[in-house]
Input
Amino acid sequence: MNCEVIAVGTELLLGQIVDTNSSYIGEQLALAGIDSHFQTKVGDNAARMKSSVELALSRSDAVILCGGLGPTQDDITRNVIADVMGVELETRQDLVDKISAMFSQRGRQMPQNNLLQAQIPVGGEPIPVQPGTAPGLCCPIGDKVIYAVPGVPWEMTKMIDEFVLPDLRERAGITSVIASRVLRTWGASESGLAETLADEIVRLDETGEATIAFLASGIEGLKVRITAKAASQAEVDAKLAAEEAQVRSIIGDDLIFGIDDDTMETVVVDLCRQQGLKLGAAESLTGGLIGQRITAHPGVSDVFQGSIVSYADSVKAQVLDTGDAAAISDEGAKAMAIGAAKALGADCTVAVTGVAGPAPAGGYKPGTVFMATYVDGVAETLMVEWPFDRKRTREFTTITVLNQLRKRLMARSV
Amino acid sequence: MNCEVIAVGTELLLGQIVDTNSSYIGEQLALAGIDSHFQTKVGDNAARMKSSVELALSRSDAVILCGGLGPTQDDITRNVIADVMGVELETRQDLVDKISAMFSQRGRQMPQNNLLQAQIPVGGEPIPVQPGTAPGLCCPIGDKVIYAVPGVPWEMTKMIDEFVLPDLRERAGITSVIASRVLRTWGASESGLAETLADEIVRLDETGEATIAFLASGIEGLKVRITAKAASQAEVDAKLAAEEAQVRSIIGDDLIFGIDDDTMETVVVDLCRQQGLKLGAAESLTGGLIGQRITAHPGVSDVFQGSIVSYADSVKAQVLDTGDAAAISDEGAKAMAIGAAKALGADCTVAVTGVAGPAPAGGYKPGTVFMATYVDGVAETLMVEWPFDRKRTREFTTITVLNQLRKRLMARSV
Output
């Protein structure tokens, strides 16, 4: 079974919107065990949409059209599918009722245009999962199938996850369960991890127990994804647990800061919460990025006190009381960490100073960074020379200094 | 003249990397006056790449292949193009010399693999612009043309801008110059601006003097792009200047914070620099986002003092000396702005507090935000109830409070 993705919208061709929908669908198809060999972007043009759908049907078993299900004149995905199927559109009263109910729930009257969304090619069915006003479509054509989902990401993902993927797997006769677990790591390079795991990857190739893939994800760290397939959820869970244990025993727990949706920030905040510690930061080089990352997650205010963004040396001296320590130095980072704990009333802190670039500063080349962590009255430091641009220097510094604190908190809780 | 884009790489189909290259190329083609009706993603598979290229050549005048020019076994774009052309690959000694010189400049020896990059289909030519080790290709086939550029974004953009677009325009006989100017706005909705400019857009449709497009860009504001075409650069510049003046007269200068690559942060920093003012911030709701945005730009340290991220109420009280003011209130924001000026030694500040969500807090629903600006000893406040999620609430608050300060600084400089 293979399935193509066609993203519909002139704005995609014009580069006004980046097509992240196809990437999401491609990733989910791969995880569901379904091949996807081509993905196409096409504008809101009936003839070109039709030729794209016909081509896709000629070389694949299924096609997912994404976009063009809105209520305006531009939205012609319904019409094109009917044309390809050689049928008419019919207005479905159940959809009219559903859509108008959505409007009345919001205290609004349904514009006449939205009636277009209740039209379905004869022989097709609306996708029963419908998060917004646009119904998705599931249209069999011969022994193949065309799906249409809205271009709005949260509507698209829900329909793909809850209807399209299970439906495709059923059509493909895939009864096995495929699942994956992501080990979130920091501290080793992709090639380094691949080398460490080389024998295990060969072993998995031979046994087929699971697969391992690496994904470098910047400030989110380096992800190691374990994927396994089995007859039942219980079996696949057992396989994943076994392989996770295997990978942990090879690369060591130290590198792994979390799994799946964990982030370095949430892991550090959780450790602080468990240990009854208040967290703070002092940022020069990162300019607020550490605080911004931590507070991007809701519910951290019981742990996170705040951050002193001390961009000017005078702020380091006056708010953080860094005294004689040079602004860009090991001693400077240490003094910032201690000063932040005091100013913010925090039990543990991270602090960073350095040269983000592109120009050198304080006698150091761009990428030179001094970091400090502070807990239990002790400040520890780390110096790194990143070979990166300004943005990556700031991002890599953020995850690295939080990882330093994580390791200290882990050691503390043993 | 129309031109398709084919992005090559299995990692694109698997969703491990989002294809931003095609979006960039699509945007540049549109700006250069060249239509692009289809964009395709295909994996590193010779047969499927070949069928994609042949299909593209059958319906378009030109094809840009992006990716697959590296030195590994997976990189087969060269081979596929030679196959489509029905020719062999030949090793070009000038490219061997160029690539090995690049390695020796970095003090490294060229791996044998990189010799593959010196191979060119007979009848094709390397693209003379070559920022990295991978040469691009320009391969005529009949009266059509295939270009190949690397998937590395900075190499791709340079080749597209400096060679592919001019070459395509020459082939298309386009001698006119197309250019655009982006007016960066904040304070009006897309539909609101479209309505205000409706008559002007109709007038432009009739006269063809220029076109106007809107692009909502989150924390970057709402962009209004004016595009014009003329016989020479001087003429197109004049047209853009005339239309910019026209648009400014209709929507008012107040909404327009900058042009092209300006950002709200750089505009505020520049105003502060011109007026000899030191800038600071106090952030609760945004958690460091304001500081992070300002310091994302190099060279702001002569103006930006820092930010006090006062997530805990105790930090508001102790570092910002907010006294009895409620943490989430108009008075609270005002006290934060004044306190930040004092703590940071800043002449002007912005401050934000509120409820980022998803849960309500302090008796306010999510999205409720209190902002303050402080300059010349006077704090002014603004309250907004955003209908957004946590992320957008924080982003829209950041650009809004900086815009408030911008307007005050503008008024001050008159």
Q: What stands out?
A: DSSP finds 14 helices and 17 strands in chain B. The longest helix of chain B spans residues 390-413. The mean pLDDT of chain B is 94.
